Structure formats: C-alpha cells, structure tokens
C-alpha cells in the first residue's frame, strides 16, 4: 500500500501521505559514527539518474572587491521520460541603484545538446563547459550561452572537499533496503577563484574565494523538502558553510543540517551538529512566508585541537532579493510542483561584504577565540 501511495504521488505530482519518521534515514544518523568523509575525485561524478530527480552543481564566487556571482547547473529528469538542463547565473548588484528589482543580473537559459565526458566528471552543452581537471582539485566553468553574461571562472579547492557521514545521503522510503528517494550534498567549502564575468556594461574580475556544492534531490523537489536554509561565509582565513532542509509532514517534518568550517589546507571541523535559527521574522505581505530578520548559525563538533564551536549571528539587513522559483525554472520542473496545493516556492537572499559584515567567532580546543569578518551570503527557501 505504501508503494502504491508513493507511486500515485509520483505519477500525478500530489503531496504524499504521512508515512512517519520511520520512512526516512537521515545522514545525521551516519554522522554519529562518521562525522564526515573527505571527497575523492570519483565522488564528483554526475549521477544523471534515469528516474525523477533534480541534480545540481552550484558555485558561489566572492571577489576581493565584494562582488558575488552564483552559477547553477540544473540537470532534471522526469520519470525517465524527459531530461532538461538549465543554467542559472546571478550577478548581485550589477547596476548598484539600490533597487533589488533591477540591480541583479539574472540569466536563466535552457541548454541544448548536453552531455558528459566518459567518466561523468565533466559536463558539456552548447556554449557551456564545466570541466574537472585530472587532479580533481579544480573546476573550470565557462559559458557563452548568453551574451549578457559571459563566464570564465576557475574554482580551485584549497582544502579537501567533504560530505557528512559516509556518503552525504539521506534516504526516503518505508523499506530501508529499497529507498524510493534520496537527498545528497557534497561540498568544496573553500576555493580560490580566478577569472572574470563579462557583461555588456563591464568586465568583473572575480579573484577571491568561493565554494562549490554538488547536490541530488532524487525525487520530486516538494516531496523531498518543505524548507531550506543555506549560508556560505568567506573570510581571509576561514570558510563556513551550512545546508539545512526540513522535510514535508510526509516524513515527520524531519530537520537535517550539515556543514563545516575550513581554512587553507584543512577541514577544521564538519558534521551534522549544526543549527540554524531565525530569532526574528516578519510576514511577507505578498507571499505570507516568514521572512527572516536575524539569523544565528552554529557549528559544533570535534577538531584535532579538541572541542570545536563556531557561531555566526546578527541582523541580516534588507533582503537582496526574493525569487519566485516557479518563474525561473524549467517548465518540466514547474509542472511537477506548480499544481500542488500549498506549494509556493520562494527564496529569500541576503548578503553583505566585509565592510558591514557579520562576524564569525571560532573556539577551537583550548586556543583563544578567533573572530573574523568576511563576505556573507544566505538563502532561506520556502517550498510548501
């Protein structure tokens, strides 16, 4: 009967019945035994599943001048019948008028003739190349898909990549041996960035730091998560990253949080003992979602120095953007979620630069507390 209910939900895109907490095996449980594992080159392979899924590679680059660009490659398959690929590029404060409605350069383009190299570690399409080097420590991202934003950036990791637990994956389904869905995240938390982004108005030098995330939602997006929180924080010395999702009621509104703190050459601490809080929110009168006003991100765990903790908290300031997801994703994904009652996906984005940044406070073993400012980007997403 559970299989029938799930199959029905998959076929018609409806919300799922409430299976309860026994229908999810979170990566948090893995992390109790193995807080994290370092990534190998093979861990960076595209999975390109032939069942319903959304697989993404997302890159965030933060220049020394305080500019931020996000790049996201979306690979989507619907029930093994149709595959689409979409490239999203967002350059924050492109025009600097102070009006988020017009400041940001947002490009969202479908891709044609997509494919992978023989070992599934690099992606290609007309006008786009995302290529992992032989050493497995550098990704070259090039795009001439849209002349409004030409991309030529190289992300070189300067610390090992990691996944929480043994494989970074949370599994969905009432039969542990045959899960019907999964959620997976793998991170390069700290990269040096070189290259540029060229617009008709200006060429932006993106020398600086950033991060890379490879994620898989191996089921319909609104079945996998009802809410998301993400933060990346890059300082001259440290990189902090955290990803949290909360499942729909189908899976007992289970919260899964993963993250870590790194510096050049070293993952200081990583695992699932992370928390995200928004002590203050306000109702958005247009969407009725609780828009964050303040945030508090905490990392707890162990390091080679002993007990480890870090905190990043404070006011978020005015939101930089609010994205109506359904207006910016491929139509085939939109068809999966757009007609489901209660599904209203929006992303609230906030960022600041070292001039007015939040402060990352780190306590590592018996060492004195260290504090650093940096460039901050957070996203809070509501799905259903």
UniProtKB/TrEMBL annotation:
Alphabetized InterPro entries for the sequence: Ceramide-binding_SVF1 (IPR051385), Svf1-like_C (IPR033394), Svf1-like_N (IPR013931)
Protein name: Oxidative stress survival, Svf1-like protein
GO biological process: response to oxidative stress
Any single GO CC term annotated in Swiss-Prot or TrEMBL for this entry: cytoplasm
Pfam families on file: Svf1, Svf1_C
Record's keyword annotation contains Cytoplasm: yes
Domain Svf1-like C-terminal positions: 219-383
Chief place where the protein resides: cytoplasm
Source organism per UniProt: Amylocarpus encephaloides
Family to which this protein belongs: Belongs to the SVF1 family.
């Amino acid at each position: 009967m559970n299989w029938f209910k799930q199959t029905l939900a998959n076929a018609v895109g409806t919300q799922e019945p409430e299976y309860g907490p026994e229908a999810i095996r979170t990566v948090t449980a893995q992390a109790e035994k193995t807080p994290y594992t370092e990534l190998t080159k093979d861990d960076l392979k595209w999975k390109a599943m032939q069942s319903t899924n959304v697989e993404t590679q997302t890159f965030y680059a933060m220049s020394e001048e305080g500019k931020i660009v996000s790049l996201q490659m979306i690979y989507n398959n619907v029930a093994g019948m149709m595959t689409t690929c979409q490239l999203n590029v967002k350059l924050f404060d492109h025009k600097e008028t102070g009006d988020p409605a017009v400041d940001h350069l947002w490009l969202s383009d479908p891709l044609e003739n997509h494919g992978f190299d023989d070992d599934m570690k690099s992606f290609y399409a007309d006008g786009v190349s995302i290529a992992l080097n032989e050493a497995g420590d550098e990704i070259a991202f090039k795009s001439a898909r849209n002349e409004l934003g030409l991309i030529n950036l190289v992300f070189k990791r300067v610390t090992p990549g990691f996944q929480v637990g043994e494989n970074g994956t949370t599994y969905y389904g009432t039969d542990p041996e045959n899960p019907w869905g999964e959620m997976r995240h793998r991170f390069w938390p700290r990269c040096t960035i070189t290259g540029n982004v060229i617009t008709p108005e200006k060429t932006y030098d993106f020398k600086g730091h950033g991060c890379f995330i490879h994620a898989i939602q191996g089921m319909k997006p609104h079945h996998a998560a009802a809410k998301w929180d993400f933060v990346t924080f890059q300082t001259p010395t440290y990189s902090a990253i955290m990803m949290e999702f909360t499942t729909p009621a189908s899976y007992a509104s289970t919260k899964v949080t993963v993250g870590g703190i790194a510096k050049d050459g070293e993952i200081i601490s990583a695992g699932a003992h992370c928390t995200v809080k928004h002590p203050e929110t306000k109702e958005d009168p247009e969407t009725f979602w609780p828009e964050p006003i303040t945030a508090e991100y905490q990392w707890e765990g162990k390091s080679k120095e002993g007990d480890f903790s870090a905190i990043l908290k404070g006011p978020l300031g005015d939101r930089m953007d609010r994205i109506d997801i359904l207006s910016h994703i491929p139509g085939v994904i939109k068809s999966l979620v757009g007609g489901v009652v209660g599904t209203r996906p929006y992303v609230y984005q906030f960022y600041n630069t070292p001039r007015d940044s939040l402060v990352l406070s780190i306590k590592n073993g018996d060492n004195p507390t260290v504090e650093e400012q940096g460039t901050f980007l957070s996203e809070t997403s509501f799905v259903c």
